[in-house]
Inverse folding.
C-alpha cells in the first residue's frame, strides 16, 4: 500500500499533467495542502520533494512553489546512429540544418546553446585497453555540453575520446572552435579516411555525483543513465569512445531489435 505522501504526490502529479495545475501556477501553500489532504505539513513536504525531484515543480525561495514548464524529453533510438552516418556525405548546408540534439528532441538549432572544449591527455589503462594502444598514448579529450535556452541544466554530459595522432591528420579536428561540427563525429572521421562500422552502447544507472546533479539540473532522488558508446571502424579498430551522462527523469532509451522470422 502506498504511503500517504506517495498518494499525495500521485494526485498532484495527475493535476499537473491534466492541466488543472498549469505551468507557471503557484502551488497551494504547504499548510493549505496539509488541510486539504488531512495530513501533517512534513508529509506534504515529502510529497512535494518527490515532484521537485521529478522536475515537475520548482521551489523559489521567498516566493513559493510553482509548476514547472515540462522539460523536453530526449529520446535516443538505435536509428540515431544510422541517421548520423547517412548524413556524413551530405553537402555542408544540409548537415548544418540539424544535429543530434535536434534529432533527439525534435527542437530547432536556434533553441540550443552549445559548448565544446578540447584538450590532449594521456590514455589511462582502461581507455588504452579499449583503444588497443599503450597506456599514456595521447588522446584528444572532447567535452560537449548542450543547453536548451532558458533551462538551468544541460541535456547531457558528454566526454569523447579519440586517438590524437589519428585525427591530427586534419588540424581542424583539433580545434574546438569548429564546433558544433556539421555532421558530427561521422563526418569528422570521414575527413581522415575513417568509416565507422558499428557502435556498441553500454548503459548503466547510478546516483549522480554532486557536480553532475548541478550541471544537469536534477534534484535529490533522480538517477542518471551512464552510456559508454564505443565506435569501431571497418578495420575492426576502436576509433572513438564517448561517455554520456544523462538525467534519468527526461531520457528515454529505445532499442529495437529486428528478429529473423521463422520459415513458413
Amino acid at each position: 500500500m502506498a504511503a500517504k505522501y506517495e498518494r499525495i504526490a500521485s494526485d498532484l502529479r495527475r493535476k499537473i499533467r491534466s492541466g488543472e495545475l498549469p505551468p507557471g501556477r503557484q502551488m497551494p501553500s504547504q499548510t493549505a495542502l496539509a488541510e486539504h489532504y488531512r495530513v501533517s505539513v512534513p508529509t506534504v513536504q515529502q510529497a512535494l520533494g518527490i515532484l521537485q525531484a521529478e522536475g515537475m515543480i520548482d521551489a523559489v525561495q521567498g516566493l513559493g512553489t510553482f509548476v514547472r514548464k515540462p522539460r523536453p524529453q530526449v529520446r535516443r533510438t538505435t536509428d540515431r546512429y544510422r541517421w548520423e552516418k547517412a548524413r556524413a556525405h551530405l553537402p555542408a548546408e544540409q548537415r548544418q540544418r540539424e544535429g543530434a540534439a535536434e534529432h533527439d528532441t525534435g527542437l530547432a538549432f536556434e533553441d540550443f546553446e552549445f559548448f565544446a572544449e578540447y584538450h590532449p591527455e594521456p590514455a589511462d589503462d582502461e581507455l588504452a585497453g579499449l583503444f588497443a594502444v599503450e597506456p599514456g598514448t595521447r588522446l584528444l579529450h572532447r567535452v560537449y555540453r548542450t543547453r536548451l535556452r532558458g533551462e538551468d541544466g544541460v541535456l547531457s554530459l558528454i566526454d569523447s575520446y579519440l586517438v590524437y595522432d589519428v585525427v591530427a591528420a586534419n588540424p581542424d579536428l583539433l580545434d574546438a572552435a569548429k564546433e558544433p561540427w556539421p555532421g558530427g563525429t561521422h563526418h569528422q572521421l570521414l575527413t581522415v579516411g575513417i568509416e565507422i562500422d558499428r557502435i556498441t552502447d553500454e548503459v548503466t544507472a547510478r546516483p549522480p555525483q554532486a557536480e553532475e546533479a548541478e550541471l544537469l539540473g536534477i534534484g535529490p532522488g533522480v538517477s542518471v543513465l551512464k552510456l559508454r558508446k564505443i565506435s569501431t571502424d571497418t578495420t575492426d579498430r576502436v576509433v572513438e569512445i564517448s561517455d554520456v551522462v544523462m538525467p534519468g527523469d527526461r531520457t528515454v532509451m529505445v532499442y529495437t531489435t529486428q528478429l529473423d522470422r521463422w520459415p513458413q
